[in-house]
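Quick one: structure tokens for this chain, please?
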Amino acid sequence: MDRTLLVTGATAGFGAAIVERFVTAGWRAIATGRRADRLQALVDRHGADRIHAAAFDIRDLDAMQAALAAIPAPFRDIDLLVNNAGLALGTAPAQSSDLGQWRQMIDTNVTALVAMTHHLLPALIARRGAIVNIGSIAGLYAYPGGNVYGATKAFVDQFSLNLRSDLHGTGVRVTVVEPGLAETEFTLVRTGGDRAASDTLYAGTQPITAADIAEQVWWVANLPPHLNLNRLELMPVSQSLAGLQIHRGTTP
């Protein structure tokens, strides 16, 4: 039986890798994102019968509704929603941060995620499907400059657990995948395209790759239907918890 997934933020990084992993294994995929050329490249590589591209800004809820209404019939029976679209902007402490960047993170990482989920819940319940939300260890462990990004990912974690509670008895599974240090376009976006900052962050490490995350999502999606993995937290071996900060000086 053909199965179909919808992946948000499928133009690069985790999202593109997840689409590739599932489609090469025989699934159909609805790939969404802002960059139509990158989505088209996925279609060109695998065929329009395997991938449906839906290009829109996920923060535009009207565009989201229109794109979902226009999904062709062969792709409408969605078995898996992967809420991957998200971003971090800025590394400054809260008192020096840009409110506009905070609002963009909330609109993308929280508002758009819940809107997409709410829209697809009836179909997922009908199919006894699954939801995988891509969170972050930033939602579990605070760090300087994490402020609103970490808070949005904490929301994703708690929303996922509450979805599990509300969906009790429907057969729908919900998992939040929370990666640590991963090398994608993430840091370039966060720093406004600062390649040196990105290279410095990953220098000498062996970070998580997009393919690593795609493999974990594939594993979660193919667990026996009576099993639910609530939370999957991943770090590269080169990363571990750093402990608490201690300020030494005359201020309290």
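The longest helix spans residues 99-127.
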